## 1
Amino acid sequence: MNLRPQRKAPIDINLTPLIDVVFLLLIFFMVSTSFKDEARLRVQLPEAEGVAASAEEPPETLTIVIDAEGVFFLGEERVLGDDAATLGRAIAAALAGRDSAPVLIQADARTPHQAVMTALDATARQGLNQVAFAATRNGEAP
């Protein structure tokens, strides 16, 4: 009589279907997940309470026009001279006692950059810090 236990053949588990299912789940979760963009700073702004809307009209905008040759116009009037001091005196006269006003610089596309810098310098010397530049989109008429 043989009393030794007989060895059974080792059981082989086929892992291929299990790996296939795991990879399919991985692909599903990767495709269905949405990623959050955290590039912005989150700032909680203070709330204003009891502030009534201002009934004042916005101040009149001071327009400086610079043509292609670098000639300055303050509104519709030509400014004689091309230096910051002359333009500054014309701006001071146009302000007529006001402390400040928004400034709009309309420079021709062919205007020398020095003329634009002169206009910025003249507005800075007068203490005007609300400066905007006018531009047109491609194909639009001014």
## 2
Amino acid sequence: MLFQNQSKSNAIKAAQDRIRSNKSTLGNIEKLANEVVGGKVEAIARAITLIESNNIDDRPQAHLLLKQVREKAKNVSSIRIGITGIPGVGKSTFIERFGLDLIKEGFKVAVLAVDPSSQRTGGSILGDKTRMEKLSVNDNAFVRPSPASDALGGVARATMEAILICEAAGYDRIIVETVGVGQSETSVRDMVDVFGLLLIGGAGDEVQGIKRGIVEMADLVVVHKSDGDNVSMCKDTASAYRSSLHLLPKPKGDHTVEVITASSIDGSGHKEFYDLVNGLILEWKSNGFFQIQRASQRIDRMKIHARNLAFENGMNSSGSKSLWSRLSKSVEIGEITAFSAACEWVNSINSSV
């Protein structure tokens, strides 16, 4: 009887500890959400770190944070702009000048710059803050480098949620800079309103490493570094792209893709880029495409999260982990195809539900 009472007492104490812990977590998350909505930079950074975490134990807190932030900032309005281009094209320089111009127009700017990552550690190698010195210290700007790691398209896993955090914090112009241009870089297009492609003068698609599909997705094309001795060459490249773009299908927005030249040294082309972005947004809000695209992106994001969560949940049991390990070895040595292995693993999970 003594042992039973002690066991019961321990169970009650454990339950009380869990309740206190849950209340403490709820209070901490609510405080963090309030600080995010209040625009506190340190809180924004902590919030993004939480939602970027790969630790499954952090997932409930991240979910709660996003829910609370959403409730506290329901009617936020922002424009999301994606900038991509090969390394060396001057994306960070272009974005810094563009961001400072936006701030002069009265906007608050957040830059989510997805960095090249160490394949071994997953950490950022380049830190965009070091390449955007003026913008990163501006009171109306928030610059956040994030490691791309092995995320599809070079875009960090939680970039879309980071966008939502920044919007809730009052940043009404969100710029997403991607690692570069490659086969899977198009994922950024699925989370922004306007997608800009930066090129350099005098180099063809093959030299610049640009896939036709990337060019087809661009809403605007900028031939960058058009200054000094490069002006004539950049104009020729812009002219060549204007001619070739007429041969491609029209973008989803059913607009003409403008090709301009720009320099972040003398500022030429930046106002034109700003005006073109605004023009597209006004046109798309007027004809309904803006709202349709945003809705479609939300559904696509839900599908991505559902797939990721389904895989994580499927790996929860020791049996499914063991089967995954065995099937992986069979795929590695070519005994079975990847598709057959995936089907067997999924069927095993479904049969155990």
## 3
Amino acid sequence: MNSTPLPITVISGFTGAGKSALVNAMLANDEGVRVGAVSVAHEADPVEAIERDIAALAEQQRFDAIVVELPPFVNPLDIAEQLAFGDDEQATLGGQAVLDTFVTVIDAASFLRDYASTDSLAQRGLASHDDAHDEGRTVVESLIEQIEFCDVIVINKIDLVDEEALETLASILHALNPRALQVQTQSGKAPIADVLDTNRFDLDNTASAPGWLAILNDEHPSNGEPDASGVGHLVYRARRPFHPQRLWELLHREWTDVLRAKGFFWLATRSEVGGALSQAGGTLRHGPAGVWWAAQDRSEWPTDDPELEADIVAEWFGDPDDNSVGDRRQELVLIGLDLDVAAWDANFDACLLTDEEWLLGSDGWRHLNDPFPAWDIDDHEHEHGDHDHEHGPDCGCDGHTH
């Protein structure tokens, strides 16, 4: 057995982006690094296949590192969580190997077209064997999973785009994942030191890489100045509920200047449960984020987690004994290209209850028209407060395409 665990590089990317070209370049590297390769393109259980094949390679004791190529329908976060066994990455695969770097390969020529697409994976013939899991899942949802959970972004095929387009693409990818190292390549030929044995992977840090999450956690100003390519952001915060009908209508309009939106919201008709929103490209989904702490009896608050309890108190609005607002709030981040910040601020403001509607109180709000589907909250208790772990509110519920 190897005296030290073999570093594993996991490579994600969409069909045709250049994953295989990158893998082949790593195998044929000029630095003398002996690389073993694992591909799970046709496996029903990718994790089981990865564990089996890595164990077989490690037992040969002739490799310095291992590279794993994932199919486009596999979420790299799922692979990381199942292989890393919590916080002890060194325990990966019985000590034979350790997750070291997550790489996402982007096709510079087709990325923006795919990102704007409303195609499902099934329509592209890319759904997994688990049809139920991938039902309705779109191309852009797969892309955003790969971009937001990685340590290195390889922008491939740069010879097929002009300099201005490349600069804009690099700015967009940096906004979506500011933590990731960007490497620009032709034919997948990246410097081996940038993609292998980098020691960049850390489960918590890599999972906290999404740009929207960094913006919320850092409490950026509401209107981030756009960069030279026009990529900017908006953080919308309010302590008054949305009128459900007006928000519904806004969510079903074209969001042409928005690349990514994420966060949670408060509907006047649903005072117990917060809503979660997730938009990427042409796909927008919404559903339950979790039960507001203000809707819970104080006896149900976490007494064994002082940090979480302090966070709840810090987010509380008004008197500590007044739960009419409490931790309920609007907190949404938008990342966009040539984003009209003032217009989006006004759009969301127009969805808030008016002063007259506010005075109706929660009993009166129940009678407001609410076109949102019913929410099943069994699996979503208090997720809305978890901005600094994992991937935040997950609303894989009802959605539509723009």
